## 1
Amino acid sequence: MKKITIAAALAAIAATAYASPYYALRQIKTALAERNADALAAHVDFPALRASVKTQLEASMARSIEATAGSGNPLAALGQSIASAMLGKMVDTMVSPAGVVALVNKSAVSPQADADADAPADGARKKAEYSAGYAGVNTFIVRAKDGKAQDGALVLQRHGLWDWKLSSIEIATALAGR
């Protein structure tokens, strides 16, 4: 009887640990729907997210400068270092708890106008569809349904046994290429 109880407890722990990123995703979705910036910020690892966004934008900027100015242009390196410093400060400001509050508040300014602009002519709203799944024991990826790797994704990382936080955004290559 004792072995059955232990096995049932271990199975319950394993099941809840497996389901935990789905629960975190539901909490993020609820926080966005309710425009609750504090609840949303609780599910974001800001230092990791900042580093991820900076790295991707800097790489995109370097490719853009290389394509435009070429590798032989001495001013390209100077321009890139200045732009990189400015980009770093912008990302630090935008990817912060205050930035999340501003983003949520901006979306709350005129929710009806946004709904009307996005709604199809027949009045039916298309529900956002996404696929989500593990990409490792401690990594969980959310991607638009039928999305390809180049379309971007949200990456959640495990923090403890049951807690998950948004730690990276894989920026879509079309956006990163601008």
Note: The CA atoms of residues 47 and 119 lie 35 Å apart.
## 2
Amino acid sequence: MKFLHTGDLHIGKIVNEFSMLEDQRYILNQILEIAANRQVDAVVIAGDVYDRSIPPTEAVQLLDEFLTSLLHMGIKVLMISGNHDSAERVAFADRILEHQGLYIAGASAGANAGAIAGASAGASAGASAGAGAQVGEGADAGSPADRVKRVVFDDEHGTVEFVLFPFVKPAVVGAKDAAGAVENVLSNLPTTMDLATRRVMVTHFFVTGEGGEQPELSDSETTVQVGGLDNVPASLFALYDYVALGHIHKPQRIGKGHVYYAGSPLKYSFSEVQGNKSVNLVTLGAKGDIDVEKVALKPLREMRVLEGKLEELLKTGLADTLGKEDYIQAILTDEVELLDPMSSLRSVYPNTMQIALKKYLKEQEEAFSLGVKVANQTTEEMFHGFYEMLRGEPMDEERARIVREIAQEAEGKE
């Protein structure tokens, strides 16, 4: 079986007051082309389908176009809700849509809890609709696992089971943290599948590697809480042959197994300018035979950072025949005050998003550096630094002794 893994579409997103809908339509059409050219059986969307819980009409229409095109090509779609989505809205009419080959896991839905949807993936690409969706054995309605949907396909090597596990807040499933929520849900899943079955987990959490190794982040992950309650160790998914993750926008592998963030298909912040976007093309052969290929995506407009004097950037822009429409962050090195530099830059780069003055950035960096330095100093060290700054010379031994005693007394030390 062959499928594409993507996620974090964030359809309807606005970046620095620029709507990304045109860019998103372009990149989704590119994913359609890849799916058709590579003759995949399914496309996996690992959450954050929309950018907000109540998406604009245009965003809903764009997703509808994308999903309809995939289904018309005979390609199955497996999709979960993420932390940006309204699970109930994303999963609307999910039981009806299963008959068309669209499998969605979002809100707890009682009767469709733990549904097993049977379909034939086929030994070759372009799988048929097969048996369609049918409710089978699953978790008891009302249990933590009733948010998970299990979808089963068959190919020439046997059975492939997809476990669709949408984002859920820990408290909703009676857990204190994200790891506890995942353990709680997984422990309630049926365990009737044969060990020879190939299993794919699709989920949307902050998954960390061995020893708490954390994924690389970008500025566009606005809701990720690092280093605490959101961490989910990858070891919890050890029984799965491939783990299709959403939530982090940089494509990357977590740990040593087949645990992957596909990343967002578009760059949504200037912290991502150095990276490239892609989708994962996953081929499942016999049990244990897994091939993962990153297929590059090319955006309609790149995100670029330009640095220099305003006059220099204007000259560069006039000569730039290929990148005029790119999204630009301009770091200006001018020392003199400038009159409406944004309008000037937009005359040559109409999609200039941000302007920053280098001299102010330097001051901010120095202030931040000083803040970090002070935060890491003891009370005694801060007194020494303050004295030296005022007097221009180190503190003598007698004053140092007095400061030491006062600092120890203030800190409650003898």
Note: Residues 109-116, 123-141, 366-374 have pLDDT under 50 and may be disordered.
